[in-house]
Amino acid sequence: MSPYTYEYARAALAVDCVVFGLDETDLKVLLIQRRIPPFQHAWALPGGFVRLDETLDEAARRELAEEAGVTDVYLEQLYSFSSLDRDPRERVVTVAYYALAKLSDHRIRAATDAMGVGWFGLDDLPKLAFDHAHIVATAHDRLRGKVRYAPIGFELLPPRFSLTQLQRLYELVLGTDLDKRNFRKKILSLDLLVETDEVETGVRHRAARLYRFDRRKYERLAKQGFELSI
Amino acid sequence: MSPYTYEYARAALAVDCVVFGLDETDLKVLLIQRRIPPFQHAWALPGGFVRLDETLDEAARRELAEEAGVTDVYLEQLYSFSSLDRDPRERVVTVAYYALAKLSDHRIRAATDAMGVGWFGLDDLPKLAFDHAHIVATAHDRLRGKVRYAPIGFELLPPRFSLTQLQRLYELVLGTDLDKRNFRKKILSLDLLVETDEVETGVRHRAARLYRFDRRKYERLAKQGFELSI
DNA sequence: CCAAAAGTGTTCGCGGTACACCCATGC
DNA sequence: GCATGGGTGTACCGCGAACACTTTTGG
To answer: Which fold has domain B156-223?
Structure first.
């Protein structure tokens, strides 16, 4: 029992993940309902304690898989939170991550269909456990800032998407309206998208052309000192 | 002895600080020489273990004061590093910070005049302990990125500075040359600087006008959705 | 008077912004 | 044929980039 002994007191170290997903109308966050105290039954970010044989990134991916069934997402470290009283049990420092999941991916949809896992609109979050509301706000700030100069928005879209979908993504993340013609001109002039020969299906109006993001092109341009800015 | 016992193994939690300073010709980093193993006698970032009664920010400031005599600096959390083997003794996760110090501040100069504390040019660093070279590189990247859209460069300059000093700051941080006329036009058009009635002294050529950064003006503009970009 | 850096304006071209109508499709 | 969103072009303006000479000062 309790065999781990140290000369000085140690904080517990945890990771928590803000997983963003984009549906037809909203930018959403994945939450799980806690089964045990503290904050039993409250909604919280997926996360948990870091093991000694894994890095923080590995811990974040493991918790995402275990607690929410989420795998193969874009994942990036966000910030470390360390208020003395952020966990009522004892001193816990958490390293927060944010992830971008493709809600179009059926594996993600299926996995997060479980009891106690839910997607909530960013403006419609339930009361969250711990300081998780603060972490979500920080993640949204980071996403809003980063989406403008790094090609990460595509991580929220299906592999093939219409320009209208892409524009809606930016509008939702940035919280502003964008002009359709100017947006298209700008995004196409960056020469990062490739037109496919597919079009939207299942819509009862003219079907939109689908594009895909060409990571090769992006990396080639980035290497030349090209600066993305949307 | 060794009275702290836990049910699960815990990593030790540390903070490390990359302190930047600007002198007449270089962007420098503050290092301290280790007195004890591991990496005895090697140069390293100031830092140390986090206590249970302090936040990460507090730990960073405490270590800066204790190990390097540095106080009253701009301080910002950088990133958390967690490779399994980054410390040969045991598992240590470190939360890195970066700080911007005014080398013009005599208190800073005096404190860092001690044995075993030194300022090193970014391109002229000694071999560093642990993964500290990697941390310094990450901090430089962050500074390079952030200085362009946030008014943090001023934290490296004296309260009153010439436009040439400011330009040299940007050139050193960004690693590029800037056009004098364009730089002045741009920076003055932002309406963040106030001309003072002082001029440089002790130079044997025409003395430059000194300016100061007006934080009030910046905050007022920032609140209006103004976007800095240099 | 000489060395050194301060200070100053104009031109050009690109990219951002504002703005409205016709087209294709499914029902 | 109608509702719905897809798709397209132009004019204007402001900002970034390129570029060189005169002024001031101390020694």
So the answer is: Arc Repressor Mutant, subunit A (1.10.10)
Can you say whether residue B2 is alpha, beta or left, with left for phi > 0 and alpha for psi between -120 and 50 degrees?
Answer: left
Peptide bond into A38 cis (omega under 30): yes
Provide the token pair at A200.
């939207």
Which parts of chain A register pLDDT below 70? 1-2
Find the mean pLDDT for residues B173-198. 96
For residue range B87-131, what is the model confidence (pLDDT) as tens digits?
Answer: 999 999 999 999 999 999 999 999 999 899 999 999 999 999 999
A167 CB contact with strand D at below 7 Å: no
**Strand C closer than 7 Å to the CB of B185?**
yes
pLDDT tens-digit readout, B5-63 = 999 999 999 999 999 999 989 999 999 999 999 999 999 999 999 999 999 999 999 99
| B184: number of Cβ within 10 Å | 15
Q: Using the beta-carbon criterion (under 8 Å), do B55 and A83 form an inter-chain contact? A: yes
Residues of B in contact with A83 (CB under 8 A): 55
Say how far apart CA A127 and CA B90 lie, in whole Å.
39
Which two tokens mark A179? 């002009």
Q: Where are the domains of chain A?
A: 12-146, 156-223
Does at least one atom of strand D sit less than 7 Å from the CB of A208?
yes
Q: Is the CB of A180 under 7 A from strand D?
A: yes
Spatial separation of the C-alpha atoms in residues A201 and A154, rounded to whole Å: 20
Residue B94 near residue B78 (C-beta atoms within 8 A): no
Class of the CATH-defined domain A12-146: alpha beta
pLDDT higher than threshold 90 for residue B224: no
Residues of A in contact with B79 (CB under 8 A): 77
Mean pLDDT value across residues B174-196: 96
Distances (CA, A) of A77 to A18, B56, B81, B214: 10, 16, 10, 33
- What tokens were used for B56? 């990460």
Which residue in A1, A2, A5, A6 has the most chain B C-beta atoms within 10 A of its own C-beta, making it the best mutation to test that interface? A6
Distance of CA B60 to the CA centre of its chain: 12
- What residue spans of chain B are helical by DSSP H? 56-63, 106-111, 132-146, 163-174, 180-189, 215-223
Which chain B residues contact residue A4 at CB under 8 A?
Answer: 5-10
Give the separation between CA A50 and CA A48, rounded to whole angstroms: 7
Query: For residue B195, what are the β-bridge partners?
Result: B211
Using the beta-carbon criterion (under 8 Å), do A9 and B95 form an inter-chain contact?
no
